[in-house]
Amino acid sequence: MIIRRVCLVGGSGFLGRNVAMQLAARGITVRIPTRHRERAKRELILLPTAEVFNADVHEDGALAQSVRGCDAVVNLVGVLHDAGGQGYARNHEQLPTRIVRTCLAEAVPRLVHVSALGAGPGAPSNYQRSKGRGEAAVKAGAREGLAVTILRPSVIFGRGDGFLTLFARLARAFPVLPLGCAGARFQPIWVEDVARAAVHCVNDPATAGNSYDLCGPTTYTLADLVQLTCATIGLRRTILPLPPRLARLQAALLERLPGRLMTLDNVRSMSVDNVCGCGFPEVFGFRPTALEAVAPSYLTGASRLARHDLMRGRAGR
Known about the structure:
- With 317 residues, the chain is of the alpha/beta class.
- Helices cover 42% and strands 16% of the residues.
- The two termini are 30 Å apart.
């Protein structure tokens, strides 16, 4: 089947924008429902094949109109903090269920669902368990004939992220950085590599029925990542690892502040390593990009020329 039109649920977000740009580069029409079109990034609205429009995908009618006539749907919705107590259930469980039901009703044959590494019913955090229940809903759709692929990335970094960029902002503000879960291990993956994998899945029917863990090439502790960020922006900062009890206390305080930099549920997520047990899936035909090759281009405020040079190099030009 030739893919001509794709609906991106969550397409105006951090990962969604990158998926949209890569699909548009292939000449694929990209439908992007959003509750606030006027807040969408200008680069997204100006994509030549993008249709960005106001719609609330949590409403059945709006979701049906959004996916109608599409060859595939990519679900990119995820919330890190459950601010109101229902955010995880609404976005990670109920929405995937609604998407599956709507795809089947509207005869959309293909769904690529972005979950999270470590998702599952036995995971320590509400975030991971809710992501696991979303995966279960998607797999139920596969049993009804929907061609489904699940992607499970580790923490995602890149221009506009809330990860390394947050560390850089804190390092510029404070000479000492008290750090809970300093020994937690991650394999961060570049946002454009995750987007590339998602676009590949949309166009490769052989990936249907499979789940893929996506990790970068290197494992770091959280303390390693903070130190790397500080070094990248040219600052020397003291990192103060906190014991578990103080880490929980710090999170309990931070989750009550505007911005919710950390929550107790985040601490529970970091109680287990967020790493892949195998190499990067060969089906995608590329190797993930090293964090060190990308981070300076956006943490230091360097021009986009460095990023374009990196992309040209990866393309062999």
